[in-house]
Amino acid sequence: MSQPHTEHHVIELGVNVDHIATLRQARGTTYPCPVQAADIARQAGADGVTVHLREDRRHIQDQDVYRIRREVALPMNLEMATTKEMLEIALQVLPKECCLVPEKRSELTTEGGLDVLSQVAALTDYVGELSAAGIMVSLFIDPEPAQIEASKHVGAAIVELHTGQYADAQGDGAAAELIRIRDAAKIAHALGMQVNAGHGLHYQNVVPIAQIPEVVCLNIGHAIVSRAAITGFYEAVFAMKQIMNGARLDGEGAGL
Ligand SMILES: CC(=O)[C@@H](O)[C@H](O)COP(=O)(O)O
Ligand SMILES: NCC(=O)COP(=O)(O)O
């Protein structure tokens, strides 16, 4: 590991374990287990665990959410669409935070931020119900001043700035996106909301976002799961070869 960046403020990491579940769902097995991954994240110093219970249940399943909430000693950030079904689940699970996200059935991943401006009345009620249950509500929005002001208006405690466009952009485009996110963070902070950020962040692009002083927490998943698959690959191959040839290794550690 290289030296830490000295200009960093202390920033929290919420580890998103969705794509551990993606791998499990690809085969319909019981492994790899997102509950186990969430606990490993805790041991590694994560400050929270994020799960996105999609309406189509393509990765995280209801049981994962209930089990992580019960079994893992980390604050949970439950990402969900603004449906009646999800509201009922959230009120049973009672996570520390609920992050409201837009969802399209056909999308590969969350494409844009929640359009708060176009649904102020409905969101005011929805945010109000979650807040009344003691859940901090976060809105996953694009870094646009009007969406930030609308988020404040509907009663959100937190905005999570969607960093997907920044992550996808190159060169001047990425620099322009970074400025947009920095400006958005200032506006949200000045309005008294907690500022989080996430989506598409990885080991090469995270530092400029982590250096934004107003940002409290980054939620990161896909890159962490991807790195784990590669850095853990040597051990996995080695263990298989040993076991095939009669070694008595404990396979339980990987849950399979
Ligand atoms: C809202 C969001 O950014 C996360 O949910 C993350 O992208 C992981 O979920 P998907 O890959 O299913 O979008
Ligand atoms: N809200 C962003 C998140 O939870 C993780 O997104 P990604 O790192 O999986 O793209």
Automatic annotation (TrEMBL):
The EC class name is transferase
Q: How does it assemble?
A: Homooctamer; tetramer of dimers.
Which ranges of the sequence are coiled-coil? Answer: none
Swiss-Prot/TrEMBL GO biological process terms: pyridoxine biosynthetic process
Name under which the protein is recorded = Pyridoxine 5'-phosphate synthase
What organism does this protein naturally occur in?
Answer: Arenicella chitinivorans
Provide the catalytic activity annotation: 3-amino-2-oxopropyl phosphate + 1-deoxy-D-xylulose 5-phosphate = pyridoxine 5'-phosphate + phosphate + 2 H2O + H(+)
The cross-references to PANTHER family, in alphabetical order and at most eight, read: PYRIDOXINE 5'-PHOSPHATE SYNTHASE
Write down the superkingdom of origin: Bacteria
Q: Does the keyword Transferase apply?
A: yes
Under the heading HAMAP family, the entry gives: PdxJ (MF_00279)
Major location category of this protein:
cytoplasm
State the EC number(s): 2.6.99.2
> What is known about what this protein does?
Catalyzes the complicated ring closure reaction between the two acyclic compounds 1-deoxy-D-xylulose-5-phosphate (DXP) and 3-amino-2-oxopropyl phosphate (1-amino-acetone-3-phosphate or AAP) to form pyridoxine 5'-phosphate (PNP) and inorganic phosphate.
- InterPro entries, per the entry: Aldolase_TIM (IPR013785), PyrdxlP_synth_PdxJ (IPR004569), Pyridoxine-5'_phos_synth (IPR036130)
| Keywords for the protein's UniProt record, in alphabetical order | Cytoplasm, Pyridoxine biosynthesis, Transferase
- Which residues bind 3-amino-2-oxopropyl phosphate per the record? N16, R27, G200, G221, H222
User: Which residues of this protein are annotated with the site description Transition state stabilizer?
Assistant: E160
